[in-house]
Hints:
Elements (H helix, E strand, L loop, with lengths): L1 E5 L3 E8 L2 E9 L9 E4 L5 E4 L3 H4 L20 E6 L7 H13 L2
Antiparallel strand pairs: 1-2, 2-3, 3-6, 4-5
Amino acid sequence: MQHGAQGPDGVCSMGRKGGDTISIVIMDHPDNIGYPTYWHARGYGLFAANPLGQKVFSKGAEALNLTLKPGKSVTFRYRIVIASDNKRLSTKEIGRLSDNFAKSR
Length: 105
């Protein structure tokens, strides 16, 4: 899998499986803690959001200390889009999907 486009709202990775091109997009939601998140993608298939990794990814310039009190919770929202059958998602299509996701509450 190859790491593709990356922006503040999401990241796209593409690869081939059985002759098909597959695009996988993970989108971050603006209501998430730590938005925009840091992304982590590797050629061997690791593909993840790191919303709490500011300190590591910014070499200490930014830090986020999230502490949950007993009985409390936090919700992170992401949208995952998978396109196959040799349909490669364009930057414009990804932007439209991301904009629609950002408007959802």
